[in-house]
Design goal:
The complex is a heterotrimer.
Chain A lengths: L1 H20 L4 E6 L14 H10 L4 E3 L6 E3 L2 E7 L4 E6 L13 H11 L7 H6 L7 E4 L4 E5 L7 H4 L21 E7 L3 E6 L18 E6 L3 H9 L5 E2 L4 H10 L4 E15 L9 H8 L1 H10 L2 H8 L4 E3 L23 H10 L3 E3 L2 E3 L7 E7 L3 H15 L4 E7 L1 H11 L4 E6 L10 H4 L18 H15 L3 H18 L2 E13 L3 E2 L18 E2 L2 H5 L1
Parallel strand pairs in A: 1-10, 16-17, 16-18
Antiparallel strand pairs in A: 2-3, 4-5, 5-7, 6-7, 8-9, 9-10, 11-19, 12-18, 12-19, 13-19, 14-15, 20-21
Helix pairs in contact in A: 9-11, 15-16
Chain B lengths: L1 H19 L1 H4 L31 H37 L1 H16 L3 H10 L6 H15 L2 H15 L2 H8 L4 H36 L12 H6 L4 H6 L5 H16 L8
Helix pairs in contact in B: 1-3, 1-12, 3-4, 3-6, 3-7, 3-9, 4-7, 6-9, 7-9
Chain C lengths: L4 H15 L6 H15 L2 H10 L1 H4 L3 H7 L1 H6 L1 H6 L2 H31 L16 H9 L2 H4 L1 H14 L12 H37 L6 H11 L3 H11 L3 H25 L2 H8 L4 H39 L4 H11 L2 H26 L7
Classes of the chains: A alpha+beta, B mainly alpha, C mainly alpha.
Amino acid sequence: MTRRCSVLALAAYLLSWRAFAQQGGELHFCLHSEPKTFNPQLVTEEGGETIRYLTGGVLIRVNRSTQELQPELAVSWKILAGGRKIEFVLRQGVSFSDGTPFSAEDVAYTMRALMDTDLHSSTGDSFRSSAGPLDVKTSGPYHLTITFPAPVPGMERLFDQVAILSAHSQRKESLFLGPFCMAEYKAGSYVLLRRNPHYWKRDDAGRQLPYLDSIRLDIQKNRDLEMLRFRRGQLHLINNLDPELFDQLAAEAPSSVHDAGASLDSELLWFNQVPSSPLPAYKKAWFRSQGFRRAISGAINREDLCRVVYRGHASPAAGPVSPANQFWFRAGLKQHAFDPQGALGRLEQEGFRLDGGVLRDRDGHPVEFSVITNAGNKPRERMAVMIQQDLGKLGVRLNVVTLDFPSLIDRISRSYDYEACLLGFVNDDMDPNAQMNVWLSSASNHQWNPEQKSPETEWEAQIDRLMRAQASVSDPRKRKASFDKVQDIIWDEAPFLYLVYKNSLSAVSAMVQNARPTGLRPQTYWNAERLSLVSEVARSR
Amino acid sequence: MKTLRQFVWGILILVFAASLMAGLLAPAPYGQQFRDSTNAGPSRRFPLGTDELGRDRLSRLLYGSRVSLLLAPAAALLSTFIAALIGGLAGYLGGWWERLIMRFIDLSLSLPWLFLLLTVRALLPLNVSPVASVSITFALLGLLGWAGPARVVRSGVRSLTSSGFVLQAKACGCRGSRLLVMQVLPNLKPILQAQFWISVPVFILAEANLGLLGLGVSEPLPSWGNLLRGLENYGAVRSNPWTLAPVLLLVIVMGSLHLVFPGEDYYS
Amino acid sequence: MRLEYGDGIRDAITRCRVAWPLDGCCGGKIRCLTQAAAEVGRQEFREDLLFLSIGWLKPTAGCLRRMGSRLANRHGVIRDKASGMWIHRAARHTATILITVLLGGLLGATLLRFAPGFGVDEQELDTRLSGATIQALRDSHAAERNVLVFYARYLSGLLRGDLGVSRSLQRPISELLSQRIPVTLRLVAFGLLAGWLLGLALALPGAISGKPAHDILPGFLSGALLSLPSALVAVLFVLIGGPGPLAIALVIAPKVYRYSRNLLAQTSAMPHVLAARAKGLSRLRILLWHVLPIAAPQIIALAGVSVSIAFGASIPIEVICDFPGIGQLAWQAALARDMPLLVNLTVLVTVVTLVANSASDLAVSPSSGRQ
């Protein structure tokens, strides 16, 4: 009898412990850059985006785990007029962090402010498929219709980045609809977020979210120091963990590290094909030759890059879309095979000859060129050195030059005084329409030959046509068909040599419950309102 | 003390000889990546283990010693020479000239020369051979590192020119360049020596920082500077303590040099 | 008839001594010497002559003042006695500091303007931006394109107390500086204190006991530490997990040790110290009462120099150990090509360097040279 009583008591205690454990606590992790602005419409870097994600309320949320759309402040929506109009039905009974009610006016105000051309917001620019005024009509406090001047492909997903501001309040940046509010900010030191007492979301049991009391974000640029603090238990999460640090941590505490598979980011190499660049004519001829580019691509051992530089936490890349992007990934595309002999064959067809260990072109110039990359990024520097050895086996002499970022950007977008460049793409949007400025030959981010007056090659003209085609229809399948063709052309012509898709690596301390790291950003705290901390007292028992 | 000095000389000669004979002593070429054994520990094949790309650490240390031990002193010599020239002129001329030169030196200490280095990088061609990159790196270091030593030299020269024996020499008819060469310069030697030996390790590390601007020794050529930068990966250092070998070597060599060539440190 | 230099000095002194007795009129003595010097016709002869005859002239302060400021400039002993010269010198120092600082700011801005990477923004690589946004980004640098105009505007703002707004951090610069300067000051102050204590603690035992054996271990340690540049010391510190300010202490301590050891050794070899030892005073008493008071001015001069050394070392240490101080700000400003911030920081660094160096100059000169 007493035994059963004690078991029941223990069970009751444990259950209450679980309930107790799910309330309160302060989550502690680091931002790697100082937030430059707290205006959610102007944030562009990691620090500001983290704070926007945690404090901003959005109409539609992309669930990072399932990659499906999730209604947040909008309970339902409809896309009309072939992608030009969107009609929202908003959630009722929501209020801002100071108690003032949320209504369609706030959404209208936010959208008008966002699309103001003088604001130059990058989020706003993603909606701006063409110039022209925006039309927002509210019909009642919870209904509104937004009409854009031209169809916006993949419009719904873009609303994941639009944090709704209050239309009436004077202190626009201090009213929040998200799970947390900005409480304190000490420049260079930390940002403190406290739970939003008026947050609308509740869990299945009816309890108000978030479970956490507060989140403390320290501003720490040094990854190694961050790691030391995580080990000492001062931090609960690390996002974007370095592969080396991942392995060290995995050896010590295997349950705290997570490799969530491929992320959306890729690393790539490209050659300068700008006709007006200050390179000698024979080098320009090499870089413009498809055979040369494909040969170089075939000489690079991507498996080694993944194995050595990323410790196996990366996969060889075939095209611009990584497997993490479930809908847009082209399954049939495989990486350019590692085939040095084949590469040599291709080069010989172009008129190159291997002569005493040195590859020479038709006119006898030894094949020697440089690759620039940004200093301080160790994986890229190491990849460049490995590629140096791979190409050395082909008789090609590669010089690795690390530059600081502004000098690098100056070379690739102003003076065009470079030969090859090794950089990475950081993608947050899964929709390739966000990369329109990369694929259009007239755009400024068409890195190998930007801002062309008219397409200089037939295949670039074809890419232009296909990209415009996918932007003008709203049926996702048709868009995918067009974009698949673009990926095939890129694979064939290789203006970008895709190297690896990096995996999404993160570390989560055992004290955090409910964390399910994903491949998409933000990796560990995408469900911040449902995270909770195990309390110290309970844990020690 | 004498046996200590002999011992220390022995160490120095050993290190120099080993670095000069790097080609014979190194187990593998410094640039060859053994991709199957990255971050390996010491073994028969790799006496100091391998680095994160699988390159043999001992070979890189030997070749890196060659680069740094030959070129950092050359850069230090250049900067000490310029410092002696400018600081000496300031201290000797005195008055209005001295004030002007001292302000010029102070400006040189405060300006962000980073941008000048970036401009130099922009003007240089991207494809330079490793030998050329090394020479350019250390020449730049020598040309930019003279300001601190110049101050010290100038105060040394000042105290010398107003010292009793120089005034005596002047009273006896010694003047101008003869005074400079026979009386001032020989007494300047300890100061210059001290500044030289202080500059050498500073340049070794500064070369690595130039690497952040694209001006350092280019890959795959090793140097103590870029070997020392590998220390910034703290976790790797904890698990592979032999990555500290370059630091140890630097400390031993510089400590020995200080013991063998003690200099007067005039810091005013 | 042109006199030989050395003979000329001796002859002139002899002649004037005969003409003007010991307690005679100062002006008369000066006139006599100046006349004799004019016959030789060389400026340095004139000054050296006057200087060498000071012992004989025994001038008063008023007499010295009449000798002219050029003489006071070259020979610190006279300057020491002519106290009115101090203010004059300090005023001139301040004026030159001001001009140099202004020039430094302008040069810093010019270096940045013409370095590669000016006017580019990392945001340009964001693929979402429209053409208009990118153009707006490029145009935002227009205010900085003309360095002289920018600098003039900056100076006029400075006079009103407005330091401008940082481009890369989007905050007023005065706010940034007021937040970061205390961090750097704390780091430097703590490091200096610890470094001096450590350095003196290493030097004093050797100075007190006088045995060379007590110098071997500190000598090797200091040589080893001197050979490690501050950035490396910082890295090693993070490895062991020690506090950052201690890294600055380790940079200062060996320099303090070597300098004070040399200075104390030199001062201990002076005649009055030897006399005190011969009389049988204890070494500690000799150190405290006879050696230290004489060495004190030079040690104070070293303190001035160690301040600028500590500031120089604080930059790599802040960057590596992630302290939010001025050094880290300067590095970020340089990499981001942030002209308003960088001009302010250059001016600040120039002011600190010049003040520290001028202070050590003013402190050292009276006691330099004449032993």
